[in-house]
Amino acid sequence: MSKNKYWQSFGQLNATKAYTEDAANEFKEELPFEMDDNGAKTPRRDFLKYLGFSTAAATLAASCEIPVKKAIPFLNKPADIVPGVANYYATTFVLDGDVIPVVAKVRDGRPIKIEGNELGFTKGGTSQRVQASVLSLYDTARVRFPMEKTGEGFKEAPTYEAVDKKIAAALTAAAGKQIVLLTSTINSPTVLTVIDEFKAKYPTAKHVTYDAVSYSGIIQANEVSYGKKGIPSYHFDAADVIVSFGADFLGTWLNPVDFAKQYAGKRKINEKNPTMSRHFQFESMYSLTGASADERYTHKPSELGAALLALYAKVGGAVTAPAIADKRLAAGIDAAAKELLAAGGNAVVVSGSNDVNAQIIVNAINDKIGANGKTVNYGTMLNYRKGVDAEFEQLVADMNAGAVGAVFIHGANPVYTYRDGKKFADALKKVSLSVSFNEREDETTAECKFILPDHHYLESWGDAEAKSGYLSFIQPTIHPLFKTRAFATSLLKWSGSTVADYETYFKAYWISKLGGQIAFDQALQDGVMEPAAPVVAGASFNGAALTDAVAKLSAAKKGGKHELVIYQKVSIGDGKMANNPWLQEMPDPLTRACWDNYAIVSPETAKEFGYATQAELDEYEVNPPKRVLKITAAGKSIELPLIIVPGTNNSTIAVATGYGRSEKVGRAAKGAGQNIYPFVGFNGATYEYVVADVAVEKTDKMYDVVQMQTHGTYDNRVEVVKETSLAVFKKDPKYFINERMAEIGPYGGIDGLEEKGTLYPVFDKPGIKWGMSLDLNLCNGCGACVVACSAENNVSVVGKTQVGKYHDMHWLRIDRYFSGDMENPDVVFQPMMCQHCDNAPCENVCPVAATNHSSEGLNQMTYNRCIGTRYCANNCPYKVRRFNWHDWNGADSFKDNQNPLVEYGRLNEVTLDMNDDLTRMVLNPDVTVRSRGVIEKCSFCVQRLQEAKLTAKKDSRPLVDSDIKTACQQACPTNAIVFGNVNDKESAINKVRTQEGYNRNYYVLEQIHVLPNVSYLAKVRNTDRTVGNHEEGHEAHGEEKHEEKKEAATEAAH
Amino acid sequence: MSLLRYESQVREPLVDGHKTYHDVTEDICKPVEAAPTRLWWIGFIISVALLLFGAVSLYKEVVYGTGMWNLNKTIGWGWDITNFVWWVGIGHAGTLISAILLLFRQGWRTGVNRAAEAMTIFAVICAGQFPIWHMGRVWMAFFVMPYPNTRGPLWVNFNSPLLWDVFAISTYFTVSLLFWYSGLIPDMATLRDRAKKKWAKAFYGVASFGWTGSTKHWQRHESLSLVLAGLSTPLVLSVHTIVSFDFATSVIPGWHTTIFPPYFVAGAIFSGFAMVQTLMLVTRKIMNLEDYITISHIENMNKVIVLTGSIVGCAYLTELFMAWYSAVKYEQDIFFKYRIAGPYGWSYWLMMTCNVITPQLFWSKKLRRNIAFTFLMSIVVNVGMWFERFVIIVSSLYRDYLPSSWSVYYRPTIWEVGFYLGSFGLFFTCYFLFSKYFPVIAIAEIKHVLKKNGESYKEQMDGIEEQSVEEFAHEHAHAH
Lengths: 1054, 480
Hints:
The structure holds two protein chains of two kinds. Chain A is built from 35 helices and 41 strands.
């Protein structure tokens, strides 16, 4: 080795004294611990340093370990996916026959929200089920792989290929016997052609359509009357007079979204020239549609035929109508007939009955009043329901006779929905090959030999033809979550097609049909393809069968003392989506009850069953336990709690379908209500949803029915709800203004209230000021907004027990008020959410300023600051603040505190379901999931507002109306909600308040000077009755007075 | 001693029996120095058991959420805040007795002030539990403290009456504690001087702050008492006024009422005196202190009860009148449809009976001086006052502006009741410990009134009363 010496500095080379000292004391800076004179190691002055350090260290060491959740970035980022930025895909909501074109919002690969497709015929409207469907994608009860029955239970089948082989063998073995495709209504052109191919391969194959709730009556009646076996489309937008016999066309009948949109067009008030359609509703129970009606009459369920015949006679039909005993009803039929005739064809009569004869009379009436070809359109047929009841009855008979060799079930669930589920189940056992394509192990699937689960629509390719010529397309928004396979793929495989799968088939079909990839891509992107103008045509009416129908209706059995009506709830419908917690927790618009079905009775009938005295009714109102009734018919009986709904016909007991599902259906549906389908009757042609004579007994049992609203009327509180009749409003356009002035006139009036109603200074509100307006005339109470709000804002589901404790979390609710005569009351729906008061009573009482006001007029909640004193909720006059009573979301500081509550019975299992990792994929990442112990409430979808502002800012332009839509506004099928920047003179909200809706505009409880930013447009009914229950004779508080105040205010300002 | 401070024989003595200074010391110190009695143990164990049940109830609430209680989206406060206001009200008598009566020179206060002040402190401690634990996130309770911090910084909202409560109650607690403790110092010194056990010597030695009984000490002690009395007097009025602001400043019909401050203060004194009665009647019996807490003490307090009870009654009627007179239909509905009738009507009438009607019986002197009746009434009044708060809070909230939000029937859960019982446990645990280790009557202050208001002194005066004027003048001519 070299002896050379390497040196860094002259100091080192020469080993100077300074250098050696430095080297010895390398870290020259002194440590902060001084040695004091006594040489103590930790002198007094350092005590605090040590204390501070050790406390901090101990805190760090001992603090709770925060679970590490990994977020792994893309290795190769797909071009069109930006983390944190949503993509939107046009697709189509398809559930059995229901079709709604939608747009799915996809964040980071997960669909999290469904919006209506504005290009489609529903014009962006959605329903509560559409909104909730995204949650069904993440349903934990979905079947996750193909399964084969072994013994009592199912076992995972290794591969689809293995299953295909077995099924192919079984199909060969079944040769000679019938091979049946049993489906709910399919309106996909491609799937129908695939079915045709399948039928071609297997000549004994046939396709039977079975709908849980049948429309066979209309289909068959149209075949008789017009030779068209189907359902015509209806044009409520062209009808000045609408007469509905129990058709809940705004709630559950065919396509309520489409109808509600059309209907709303004729209900929107133009203040300069107020006109409205006139809507008569004849029904036995209070339906959602009945709630919107101008004139509503009740009849016994068994009286429907008589009522229809009476109307037919009045409009000129050559029949002798049976006498109508009820004078009010008879008068109503008279009035309806007069108006129908006067409308000159711009009228429509619809009926919800499934009786062929009743529908033939409806056809006859429509023909008489000239609606055929105008409002009832046979040029465009509706494809929502195709099932013919007799065909299914035949199938059951064939199966029982052993004539069926194989049955493939898609969408249908007869073991649950058929009137004799057990009979079908037994028949199914006689079929050697039974395959279900249903997404869960429902009642029918449980009886099948194979389960080959189909995709959820958000994972699928496909198409749908809602009405003839109106096509919409389905494209997947996420890779299938599970080992599922499209129904049509299976059929293609089994029919030996050369096409590998349905996706290829679908693409090939449309590319060739549309003439190329570009056109196909465009169609997918739009999601819909519709004729430029609707084809409207009549059909020639064949009155031949009329006499027979009249005879049969006239001879109809008289009803007993109590009659049963089986109806569909707006939320749950036929029960297909019963395991959807959002739908289960959505309160029924009329009864405001959720998580159960029940027997609806009138107040008069309730007297028989233990609710006669005021004290008993008070008990009923404030306590969830309700008296249980035992309903018996044809040897079957069911025990259900009663719910009182004023306006129900006194002889009617109404029970909803869709409840009482089997345990395998899922944890949300489990235990909810009871199955009423066994009470459905069959008259030899169609199923009957009315049982004309049932025995009802009072039992000693009580059962909790949970309701989100317990008090029914608005008790004359006209500051809350304002309504009047069209006649009054036309005569006195200032009616509502006068009503408001009576209250606030002395305090500055409508324009001066803000300033004169207070001792405090008033602040300018420059820039953006968010505001919302809700039109009570357009709101039909359907509840799409309620579910949309839950989906957008991660609103927690609390389950039945907690709803019973009044712990529900809905940010947006639809209050239902009865008014007027309690025998035949009117209903007003009032969507209620945080009113974002400028002078908010909640804000000043919070000790920690957790809720405060933004410069844009938002009342905002800072969850992190909230300590949960609930003072704000107490002080909210609108009671819209919601407290997190328990750990709904697993977001608590106390880990695992949900399971003990579930065991203890204070939480339902649905909470665990909602907290499953799979279900949580539905959460909107833009909205904080709230922890236990904090208050939450409507934020006006602040995440959307921020996004809209940023977009406008990036584009260097002012914000415009079209940039923003709140979730409720977007979901609303009737455009009842207007939202925007009030300070923008061009905005819709500004126009509604100052021009278009000036005369009907009002603020709820404005007299308490909280200055809400949500306004309402008062309800106007097209009737001659006195509407509402407020006192007669509003004094002329007068416009003059208002003007005076205005002047005084102006003078004061100078 | 000057006979110019002559007190008429018509006035009843404040201390019965022929007590000397030494007797007073012996009587009051004996229970402290002797081993606890059987009764004391039974009471103490029950109290601790209740306290533990309260702790379990709170554990449930904190771990599983406020949903363990049956409050709901409409009724955000129920038993929790009812109990809070009730306990705060009870905590009013002590300071009133010690401060206001001191300033008014009411000699009779000496017999009861010590125990009443202790009761005040324990009641305020109990009261404080409710607003703390009713929070949804109690671990964030320190957010209500205004101090510079790194959380934003998160500053408190000085507009919120709930924050005013924080200051009002903590101030009241501090001043009451100081007042109580400064009064205790001379007595602690007495106990120290008598103590035979080592721990007792040490404990009372520290607790008496080196009190020697010098004139200087006495002078400072007296000045401090006066200063604290001056400070406490406005507090007696302010605390419940501020508590009433929680309701009065809101917009809820039935809460939004300007009458609340005086009405709440009167109610607080009412319930506070009732609670003092309950405790005193038991204490004097068990500890043989009948000579110090005499029938006339009891009668005096009953007079306060009938007065404040009547004020409260007037307030109730005024509320009803104002509801009618205001012509505000929301307020009328609350008062006439849903408070005096409706599902909670029973609680209103219970309140009326207990607070307004039955206390009127105290106009009868016989009943005022009847111990058993007084004891019964003291309980009745506090039941009534609990329901007053319940009526105000729950029956205003459950049916306010929007009929759609009217509540289902609110019943407490076992854990809600448990929390309340636990506060009793806390209160009585404290009270039992206090009565065992502290002199329950202010020894020094009793001695102060003994000479001129005690029975023994009054008897000495008999001879003088019978003297003729001349004799008296002659005998006392040289006194000065």
